[in-house]
Amino acid sequence: MRVVFSCVPQTGHIVPLLPLAQAFADRGDEVVVASGPDAAVAVTDRGLPFRAVGPTFDALFGTLRARTRGVPGDGLHPSRIESYFAPRLFGEIGVALVVDDLLALCEELEPALLVSDPYLFAAPLVAALTGGHGVVHALGPLIDPDVLDLVADAVSPVWREFGLDVPPAAGMYSGTTLTICPPSLDPANVGPRNVHPLRPAPPPSADPPPLPISVADPERPLVYLTLGTFSNNDLDLFRLVLTALEDEPVNVLATIGRDNDPAVLAPLPANAHVERFVPQTEVLPHCSAVIHHAGAGTMLGTLAHGLPSLALPQSADNFTNAALLARAGAALTLLPGDVTDAAVRSGLRIVLEAGTHRQRARQLAEEIAAMPSPDDVAARLASQVRPAIP
User: Fold this and answer.
1) Rounded CA gap, 165 and 161, in Å?
2) pTM score, two decimals?
3) Number of separate domains in the chain
4) What pLDDT, in 10s, does the model give residues 271-294?
5) 357 domain residue, yes or no
6) Same structural domain for residues 350 and 244?
7) Does a structural domain hold residue 205?
8) pLDDT digit string, tens, across residues 69-100
9) Domain extent for 103
């Protein structure tokens, strides 16, 4: 069976899809991952075939910026970020710049399944045009229906250009939807029809890998600090958190991103260690808590290990995720204007010492562990479709 995976060319959109893509490949299915050229390395590093479809993310964002006086989204209230960018950037611009390439690829390969991230709004149109079975692979919580109504309005002209009327929710729920959020974290999972769970991260190993760095005092709890791969340019925020925790009885490991230089943060507090990148799978098994931006990948990885967190949302879906974490009782959240030395210290002490956040995080970890694995989901999806090419 042939399966095409396609996504927005950003790390947070690519990486969540790769375990399922690998599961299909391990079954012996023919897998192709299609995205903007800047996604190639992340895909080929996993040994998966890659095809360039559409422009780079910078080109997508640059198109929006060229239409805007000022920085797109600048000054928006956090609650309006998704409803601003989804229809404009990923809807109107993304569909127009991606649909022709993706359609040509699917006409060439005739995949039995077209699996896409929920912001690649060209995918439902291509599935409708080719008669393929579309599968939306969520990246975190399902997108608000009101936001999808705005997207449907934005992409309607492109659908009409191909002689079709845009379906409800911009076609995102016309096929199968895979949700990667545990049920009690995202109650919206029960809304759309044909929604099926997919475990977002493997359960903690009984024999975890050793911690890849040395810490000042191995007897102290380890706190992991990350702002992900998109919102990690504010080195002053890293500096603020490290300074706030320098006298706390913890070790702190911060990862600041491959494009940032740890030397910029020198001199470091004695209890801090900074790296560009360390795989979460090597860090989280050793942690007692995580301070993060509430990106979906970090959030779900943290929860899979049953860890409480202090969320410092920065952009994109961070604010939605942080609100869900706080409502679920697994994290405390500090919005940008509330992040001070004292607030960081107090917040971390609460999630480390109170016990209630850890208890809720462990309950969510149990929910995640009970979700079907990528191997299970690949087998079920394969059983539901007839391959287009024997």
Assistant:
1) 9
2) 0.89
3) 2
4) 999 988 888 888 999 999 999 999
5) yes
6) yes
7) no
8) 888 888 888 778 889 999 999 999 999 999 99
9) 2-200+371-384
